[in-house]
Each structure stands twice: as C-alpha cells, then as structure tokens.
Automatic annotation (TrEMBL):
Any Pfam family matching the protein: ACR_tran
Protein name as it appears in the record: Multidrug efflux pump subunit AcrB
PANTHER family: PTHR32063, SWARMING MOTILITY PROTEIN SWRC (PTHR32063:SF0)
GO cellular-component term (any): plasma membrane
Organism: Algoriphagus ornithinivorans
Gene3D superfamilies: Multidrug efflux transporter AcrB pore domain, Multidrug efflux transporter AcrB pore domain like, Multidrug efflux transporter AcrB TolC docking domain, DN and DC subdomains, Multidrug efflux transporter AcrB transmembrane domain
Matches recorded under InterPro entries: AcrB_DN_DC_subdom, Acrflvin-R
UniProt keyword list: Membrane, Transmembrane, Transmembrane helix
Keyword Transmembrane helix: yes
Transmembrane regions: 12-30, 331-350, 357-377, 383-404, 436-458, 464-487, 522-542, 841-860, 867-887, 893-912, 951-973, 979-1005
Amino acid sequence: MVRFLLARPIAVFMTFLALMVFSFIVFRTLPISLLPPIDVPQIVVKVNYPNASPEAIEQNVLSTIREGLITLNGLEEMDSKAGSEVGTIRLTFDYSTKMELAYIDVNEKIDRITNALPEGLARPEVIRINTSDIPVARVQVVPKEGVDEIEVSLLAENVLKKRIEQLPGVSLVDINGKKERIITVEPKEEALRALGMTQQNIISAIQSGNSELPGISVKDGQFRYYLRLATRVDTPTDIESLPVAAASGAILPLGRLATVNYQSKEMLGYHLFGSKEALVITVHKQAAAKMNELMPELKAALELFKTDYPQVDFELTQDQSNLLNAAISNLQTSLLFGGLFAFGVLFLFMKDYRLPLIIGVSLPSSLLISFLVFYFFDISINIISLSGLALGIGMLIDNAIIVLDNITRKREAGLSLFEACVAGVDEVMSALVSSVLTTLSVFVPLVFLSGISGALFFDQAVAVAAILSVSLAVAFILLPMLYFLFFSKSQKLDDGREGPFFSAVLRLYEKGYSAVFAHRKIVLAVFTLLIPLGLGIGYLLGTTGLPEIEKLDATLEIDWNEPISALENRNRVIALMKSMEGNYEKAEADVGVRQFLLFDGENSIQQSLLYFLFSSVEEKNQHLPKIDFFLAANYPGANYTLGDAPNAFDQLFSSSLPYYEVRWKDLAQKKPVEEKKVDPWLSQFPTSEWERGPGLQKEASVVFTLKADRLATYQIPVEQVQEQLSRLFGSFTITDIRRFGEVTPIRLKESQERFEDLLKTTRINRSDSSSYILGEFVDYRYDDHYKYVTADKGGIYQSVLVTAEEPHALASDYIKWGADKNLGISMVGQYFKDRENIRQLIGILAISVLLLYFILAAQFESFIQPLIVVFTLPLGIGGAFLVLLLAGASLNVMSAIGLVVMLGIMVNDAILKIDTINRLRKEYVESPTVSAEAALEMALHKAGQIRLKPILMTSITTILALIPIIFSSGLGADLQRPLVYSVIGGLTIGTLTALYFVPLAYWFFVSKKKLKEA
C-alpha cells in the first residue's frame, strides 16, 4: 500500500489537503462547551405548599405522587423530603434510560394525579438534570439608591431576560431575587366594631367589585357584544372607593373601613450582591453552542445594558468559561512548546532541519483531521475531549519520530529514497499498529464504567481513538510522502556518522549496557524489586477527584437551625457580609427559598448560600477564618459548611447521597417513630460515631389546640375559628387582579405583632353580633418536632449518618439493633456506589490487560514476549508515583490521564524494541558463521543501538514540552500539573526500562527456549 501511494505523491498530498480543508470547515461548526452534554439520569419533582407543615406535605402531596410514579420504567431509586412549605422527590434512573422519554412520562403521570392533590396547590414542577443546566455565568442586577426594586424586577423579567435569551447559543435564562407587587388591605378594627361590621364585609365587597362575567354576550340586531362588568378594580384607589353596606343600612366607601396600599409581596427568599439586595440572572447555554462565542456576546450585551438602563448596576460573576479557556490555552501551549522542543531535539539528534518541518506539518494536520471524527460521533470540544487529544499527542510525536528515524536509517543503509520510504514504513507498521491497539485496549474499556464516569470517558475514548487512528494514517501515508517530496531533490546521502551530541549519548549508553549485562542477574533482581516498591508508593499518595486548584473563591452554606423568617435570614447574612466588607473582591448570596426554575436542591427559608471571590489565595486564607469567628460568636447553633467554591466538575460529580446512611422504617405503623422513643434507642446504637439524618433533625414549633368544649358552649363553629386563624396568621388572598398575564393579588395585611398578643386582641363574632376574644378558644404550646419527613420507595424512613472510618464493619449490629425494636433496617450511601465502581474498575482493568496480552501475543507469535511488555508497566507507574509523592501531588483524574499517556509511550517503545530484537535475531541466526547464542547477544546489542535514538527523542521531546507547565501559574496549570508529574516520572524510569530492562528480560525469559529451537 505504501509503495502504491508513494508512486502518486501529488495525488496523496492533494487528498490530504482536501481532507484538511474539509476538517477545518467541520471544526468551525463543532460546539464548544465546558463539559459534554451528559444526561444525568435524575429528575426532581418540586412541590410548593404555602403554610403547610412537613407532615401535611408528606401525607397530602408527596405520598400520592410517589404512589403515582412507582411504576416508571427504569426507575432505580426514589427519595422524597418534606420540609416546611416545600417538598422534593428525587427520581434516579438506570443509565440506559432515555431521559427525554422519562421526562415526558413523569409529566404525564403528574398530570393524571393532579386531581388527587389538595385544591389550590400549584402544579408540581418537574426538573430534568443535565450538564448543560450548569450556568455558564451569573449576571448581577443591582438597583441604585432610590430606585423602585419592583420596577427593576419587572425590567429583569420582561426586558433583560428576553434580550439575553435572544443571544445566539443561550438556551435558558433563570432569575432569582424577583420582587412582586401586591395590594394589601388593612382593616380598621375600631371602625368595623363601631359599625357592627366584620372583616367579611370588606372581603365580600372587594370580591364583588372584582368579579367578571366570562363568556356572556348580548345580541343587538345583527351585532353581538360580549359583556364586561364596569365594577372591575385595578388600583388601590378603585378598591377604596368600593361601597360597603353596614348593618344599619348605611353605605360607606371601603377606604373609611380599611387602608389599601401597594406593597411588596412577602419574600420567601432574597438575593444579595455584597450587602445590597439585588437580582441574579443565570445564563445557560445550548448543548450545540460555542462557549467561546457566547461569552463575548453576553459581555457586549451587558455593556449595552449599562448604557440603556443607567438606574441599574450590572456585574458578571462566576464565569465558568475560565476552565475551558485554561484547557484550550494549555493545549496550545503544549503544541507550541512541543513543536519547538521537537525541532531542537530532532536537530540535535538528526542534524537536518527538514525532519522537524515534516513533524511540524504532521502534528497540526493530525489534530485537525481528528476533529472530523468528533463531527461524525457528535462530540463537542470540551475539557474531557480536549484531554483525550492531549493524551494522544505524545503517541503521535512518538509514531512520527519512529517512522522518520527508520526511513533515515534505511536510506543510510544504501537504499534509494523511494525504497527507503517504503521499507522504513513497512518494517515498523505492524509494531506501530500493535502499540496503538494496546493503548486503546487499556483505555477504551473504561467507557463501560457505570454512572457518570463511563459517560464522561466516552468523549475521551473517542478523542483518543480518533487521534491515534489519524496518527497512524499520517505516519504511514503523509510522513513518507513528505519525506519523499522534501528529499527528492537531494540525492546526496548522509555519511552515516552521528553528530557529536548523539555520539556522546551513544558512548554513555554503551557503558551502561556493558555494566548491566556484566551483572545480569543482580540488575534483573534490582528491577524486579523495584516493581513492588514502586507500586507500594501509591499507598502513600492521597486520592482526590480533581487536583487541588488554587481557587480564589469560596462558598459558605448555612442552616441557621432556627425557625426564622426569610427577612431575619437576610438580615443575618447582611451582618455577616458587612463584617467581611473590604476583605473580598466580590460576594453574593442566595438567601432562603430560591426562585430558579432549574434549582433541584433543598429550598428552605432557614438556609443561605454565600459566595466570596478574593484577590489572591493569601487574602482568602487570611480572611476566611473571620467567618468562623463571626458565626461562633453570634450564632453558635448554626450548621454551616465553608470551603472552596465548586466548579462545573465538582457540581457534576457531587452526589446527593450521604456517604453511609443507616435507615429504618417502623414496621408497625406508616409514620415516623416518635421523638420520645427514638432518643433512648439512639443511645443504644452500635457505634457512637454518627449524626442525625434529615428525618431526625428537630426544630421548634408552635402547636395550636382548639378548646372544643368552649366552642360548643358559646355556639361558635370550628370552621369560623379556623378561618379567623388563617386570616390572622396566613397570607389570606381576597382576590386577584388579572391584566394581560400580569397577576396582582389583593391580600389582607398580615400583622407584625407577636401571635400571643394577636390572640389576646383579636375578637371573633357570633351570629347574634356578640363577640369574644379569640384567645379564649385557642390553647398554644411550644414544641419540638421533626424538621423533615423523609421517604423512599418503601415509605417513610428515619436515619443516622455513620461517620466511622469503616462504617460497614458493624452492618450486622445495625440490623440486630433494628430487629430488637421492630424496625426494618437498610444501609445506603455513596460508600456502596464507590465499592461498586472499584469492583467494576478492577474488572475492566483486568480485561484491558488481557486484551493487551492477546494483541501482543498475536504480534510476536509468542506467549512469553508479551509478558516483558506487561512487566515494564509497573516500573513506569512506580516512577510516576515517586515524582507525584516528591511533588506533594495526589492521585486524581488528571494524574490518572498522565499515567495512561506515559504507559502508551512506554508500551510503544517496548513493542518496537522487542520487534527489532526478533527481526535482527532472525537475520543473524540465518548466518552459518554465527551461533544461536551469539545471534541473541548481537541482536540485543544492535537493537539497543537502533532504538536508542527514537526512544530518547520521544522521551526528551515529551518531557521538555511539559516542563513549562510546572513553572506556569493559573487555573490551567494547576489542573494539568499532576498529569505532567505522572508523565515525567513515568518516562524517566520508562526510558531506562526500555533501554536496559527489556533486553535483560528478553535474555532471561526468552533465550533458553529459543536457543534450543534454533
């Protein structure tokens, strides 16, 4: 094939050129995003039930929804959590489930059971989770001093949101912190009592004044007109002018009996920017959009907003494109330095400027053609796929160097230029194909990991397979063709003598080779001993998901652990912000219930999430402890978590599951076990290292009890007292004013007095116009009750979170503890997921090693020689572990990618070395004057000399290309540094392994059997 293609160099060159032009066109259409658009197999159903207790939400709403959703296809887990006024159900599906269909199915089932839910309850929200739901940026909208905040909310909802949604690439715009206008009616109790009237007179007058006659029309000759009542109200003035009839028959304007005003609706949550109230607009991108094009458009739009709406300040925060930009800049840096160092190293070793130029053409062309594979597999350019490309670049350079060196060697041996190109490629073709297949065999099976890890590895595996496959095509077709074209006019052959640099290196190698083979058994024993020692270093390394990045931002999650209002929550957060003022660059907070459509977490009035951005790591480390001090001094009962702000990776990999949770259900009844029983039971729990789960957390509450005997004595209906209490303490809506989609509620104004005082001052009327103090018929007491009611597929459960180092060690004791109390016990949590992932990973790696062995056995036609390649891998891994340990790095996703890069290059070198030994040995054995033993010694020695140059060039080029990242700073460098340590450590040891261990192991394992056959 190579001979056929080389005979038509112009045709091949033009074909590659056309392919690259087509690839460039395709590249410009590829979406650019932070992460692959992965369907996380979760759906969240959210319920808002104002003024309802956790028990009421569980009993009246969540239990009904769970029963309706239990038959969903592919449903693995279902967990619900009912809190005050809000409830959530989290549905987890199998990863093979098509989430588009599951989302439709959930909505259909919700529609079917809507009639079984309490009247007046808003339809439950159904939220589908996707990686593209992670906002790419947040826009802060801060009203200036004296500007009406409700007007700014309308501006954000009706104008800013629509303008941002029109930007190319934006899929959704979400808002938090909006304020709504309502009309409040505050009855004048003295005037009502003086006229013998009640609040009901005012309520009836307003409802009558806002009534409509929908669908009624009158005929007038040939015309038909629809009726509209002229008594409809629109403003507080209209309401105050409504007539109210007194018992005496007098007609009074409502304004004399009540005060009517526009007010801001009571907020269940706020957004703060710094210590100011604001709104936040989160921007979500389309899966097919390019983030690097979207962000400049968004920033340009913000500049226009600043000009168009001077009454509002705008600020862009939490820009997630920084991670992507860091990855792209690192790839560009690697390519730039890789090219420069490849040129320098090749010039030192090969003495000809045309060879680096050939690699300079092949490297970007391979990358560009790889993007064509992205297009056909529908893969975006993201951090995961880019890391796959970076992983393959080392192998790409390796293949190019090997092919060019082999062609040069054939030419120096006296072959013509054409024959040297053909023979040089043919000789290494099978070995290079095997090396690529072995690399893929190690990596591609990781796609079959369950969960989000396997979904992420798909993009990386396709990227690796693409660049390695393309690199083979480039090495076998483009490189020899370019070599042929570049050298066709130069008929002068090199004299074959090496330059002074490589000559010195060769002499050094010869000394080492002589020393190693003079003490073969001792050196082999040392190498063998290094394998367990190197792998043992892995136990000394810490393990993390992502490398520790020097983040300038931090988050604080607070649960005040008290039944406070959203306003009090806001005031506390503002006080905390002011205590930190001047210590941070930017800060924002989502206080209480969040209005985001896509928010799938807990919505609680008592919780807040704060975000701080600092100017430097030193400033961050200096000022963050002040938060601990402030909370400990002022709110010692608050539960809070202070740490680094999560990036998109953290948000993607974060799990809602606790690490290890012991759950129990009361087998005798379908409700939570009472506190008075649970507390003594928990004192007998098998371990003391535990904390209360959500279903055991308590909060203070007030319990009202109606005095039935007194109500009967005074002949006051129970419903009348209940209605009076709902008007007094709830948000009682009289009616709504509806204008073209805008709804303005008219509500009774809620009193700000203490409830004890209201019970003493509020009167309740009997049918004979006599009235009594409401407190005479109502008892109250303070009580602790469960803060949440938790349930799963099997019903209501309570739980404890075990914090012991080995939580599963007492599993049988947990079951026995529950059985003694008639409780059904189950253990769940991330602990079990992690164990399952580790089992899968071990199985997949075992399959990978077997595949690698089978491929090499086919390549070498030997069962022994592949073992030599396999035994080189632990030595490289040990070298990588050693450098990671010395550098203070951990085992994480990036260092693991570095290990795969390094192992790919090591396998490549070892395969080519063994392939060369086999070929030379066959040549020498065929000579009648050379004994079999001498043929083996000569083959080992000669193969070392032949492969020395490409092995050193590959290792030195790769290491030098990566070294600048170690001394760089910033997010990208922090992310890539563990990968660099792995590659440098592994290749340093791996180079020595390829040079000395491979021939030594070949002599030890293969020699005796082969000598007898010979």
